[in-house]
C-alpha cells in the first residue's frame, strides 16, 4: 500500500461536475493574475524534446524518462519532459525577452519513477512553468523574496476569488508568507527529517518559503534534491548561508501536513553551474548544446519556477487527493481504498 492518507470524516465540498467547473475557474483566474503581476507572456511549449540535447530536466539524475523513436526522423530518440526548467531559459534568449519580461506556459510531464504515489504525488504532472529575465544586480536574496511575495499574493487573491463562488470554502492562507533557510530548519529541529521540519514550520506560520534547497547542510545532508544546472543553490547570500532558490509551502489542514505548491529560484550563472556540476560529478554535461550556450554567455540571467496546477486546485477546493482534480493512472490499492471511502478519482 502506498502512503495514502484517508480521513474517515472527509467529504468533498463540491460534487464532480461542480469540481470540474471550479478547476477551470481557478486555472483561468490564477493564470491571468500571475501573468499580469509578473509581466509574463504565454508561449507554446513542447511535450517532448530530443534525447541528449541537455534541455530536459534531470530531476535527481536517476529517474527514468519516457522515451520513444520518431520514425520519419531516422528513428531519432525523443523523451517526454520532466519539466521545462532549462527549455524556458533558452526560449527567453531565442525570443529576445528583455530584463523584467518573461514567459509562462502549460507544462505537462510524465514521471513514471515518482517514488511515492500518495495524496499529493502522481505519475502525471501539470504546472505553470514560468521564467523571467533579470539584470545582474537582481541576482540576490532580496529580489528572490520580492518575487515570492508577488506569487504568494496571487495565491491569496485566487483563494478569495474561489470564496466568491463557493461560500463553504473559507480562506485559510495568512496575510504574509514567512521566510526560513533550510539551514535554520536543521538548527531548529535537528532530530527531525526534512519533511518533518517542513510540517513543523508550515503549521506554525501557515505559509513559508524554505530557502536553499539542493546544497549540503552543515551536517552533510541535503534538505531535498535539485538538479545542478538550473536553480542556484551554491551562491552565498548576505546572511552567510547558501542558495538563491526554494519552495513555497502551505499548511494544509485537510492532510495535516505541509503542502508544496511551487519550486523556484534564481537560475545558475556560468560560475554557479560549473561549481554545481562539479559537486554532483556531472561535468560531462558541459558538452550538451544547452550547457554550451550558457557557458558561452548566450543565455540570459533569469529567475523562474513551476507552480502546480492540480496542486493549486486541490488546495483551493480542499480536496483530499490530487486524483480528484486531475486524471491519471493509480495502483489498484489506491483506487480501491479511495473508492471505498467515497473519494472519486477522475
Could you please describe the fold and organization of this structure?
Helices cover 32% and strands 20% of the residues. The two termini are 20 Å apart. A hairpin with a 5-residue loop joins strand 3 and strand 4. It is built from nine helices and eleven strands. It has one domain (16-340): BirA Bifunctional Protein, domain 2, CATH 3.30.930.10. Helix 1 packs across helix 8 and helix 4 (182-188) crosses helix 5. The protein has an eight-stranded mixed sheet with strand order 1-5-6-11-10-9-8-7, sandwiched between helices. Strands 2-4-3 form a three-stranded antiparallel sheet, with no helix packed on it. The model has no long low-confidence stretch (mean pLDDT 91). The chain is an alpha+beta fold.
Q: What is this entry, summarized?
A:
This protein is of the alpha+beta class and 346 residues long.
List keywords for this structure.
eight-stranded mixed sheet, 346 residues, single chain, three-stranded antiparallel sheet, globular, BirA Bifunctional Protein, domain 2, 9 helices
Topology record:
Layout: H1 16-38, E1 40-42, E2 48-50, E3 67-70, E4 76-80, H2 85-95, E5 102-110, E6 124-133, H3 141-165, E7 178-181, H4 182-188, H5 194-205, E8 207-211, E9 245-252, E10 257-266, H6 270-279, H7 289-295, E11 302-308, H8 309-316, H9 332-340
Parallel strand pairs: 1-5, 7-8
Antiparallel strand pairs: 2-4, 3-4, 5-6, 6-11, 8-9, 9-10, 10-11
Amino acid at each position: 500500500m502506498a502512503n495514502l492518507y484517508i480521513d474517515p470524516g472527509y467529504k468533498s465540498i463540491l460534487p464532480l461536475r461542480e469540481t470540474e467547473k471550479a478547476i477551470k475557474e481557478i486555472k483561468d483566474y490564477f493564470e491571468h493574475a500571475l501573468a499580469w503581476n509578473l509581466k509574463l507572456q504565454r508561449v507554446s511549449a513542447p511535450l517532448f524534446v530530443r534525447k541528449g540535447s541537455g534541455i530536459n530536466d534531470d530531476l535527481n539524475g536517476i529517474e527514468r524518462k519516457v522515451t520513444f523513436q520518431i520514425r520519419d526522423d531516422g528513428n531519432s530518440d525523443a523523451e517526454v519532459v520532466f519539466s521545462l526548467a532549462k527549455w524556458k531559459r533558452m526560449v527567453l534568449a531565442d525570443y529576445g525577452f528583455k530584463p523584467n519580461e518573461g514567459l509562462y506556459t502549460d507544462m505537462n510531464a510524465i514521471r513514471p519513477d515518482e517514488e511515492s504515489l500518495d495524496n499529493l504525488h502522481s505519475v502525471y504532472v501539470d504546472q505553470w512553468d514560468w521564467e523571467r529575465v533579470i539584470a545582474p544586480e537582481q541576482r540576490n536574496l532580496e529580489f528572490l523574496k520580492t518575487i515570492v511575495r508577488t506569487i504568494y499574493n496571487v495565491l491569496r487573491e485566487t483563494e478569495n476569488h474561489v470564496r466568491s463562488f463557493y461560500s463553504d470554502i473559507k480562506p485559510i492562507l495568512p496575510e504574509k508568507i514567512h521566510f526560513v533557510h533550510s539551514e535554520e530548519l536543521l538548527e531548529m529541529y535537528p532530530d527531525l527529517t526534512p519533511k518533518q521540519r517542513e510540517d513543523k514550520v508550515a503549521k506554525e506560520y501557515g505559509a513559508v518559503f524554505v530557502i536553499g534547497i539542493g546544497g549540503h547542510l552543515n551536517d552533510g545532508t541535503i534538505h531535498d534534491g535539485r538538479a545542478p544546472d538550473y536553480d542556484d543553490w551554491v551562491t552565498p547570500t548576505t546572511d552567510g548561508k547558501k542558495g538563491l532558490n526554494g519552495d513555497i509551502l502551505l499548511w494544509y489542514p485537510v492532510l495535516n501536513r505541509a503542502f508544496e505548491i511551487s519550486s523556484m529560484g534564481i537560475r545558475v550563472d556560468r560560475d554557479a553551474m560549473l561549481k554545481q556540476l562539479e559537486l554532483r560529478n556531472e561535468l560531462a554535461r558541459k558538452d550538451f548544446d544547452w550547457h554550451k550556450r550558457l557557458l558561452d554567455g548566450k543565455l540570459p540571467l533569469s529567475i523562474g519556477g513551476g507552480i502546480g496546477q492540480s496542486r493549486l486546485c486541490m488546495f483551493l477546493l480542499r480536496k483530499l487527493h490530487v486524483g480528484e482534480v486531475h486524471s491519471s493512472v493509480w495502483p489498484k490499492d489506491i483506487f480501491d481504498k479511495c473508492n471505498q471511502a467515497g473519494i472519486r478519482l477522475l
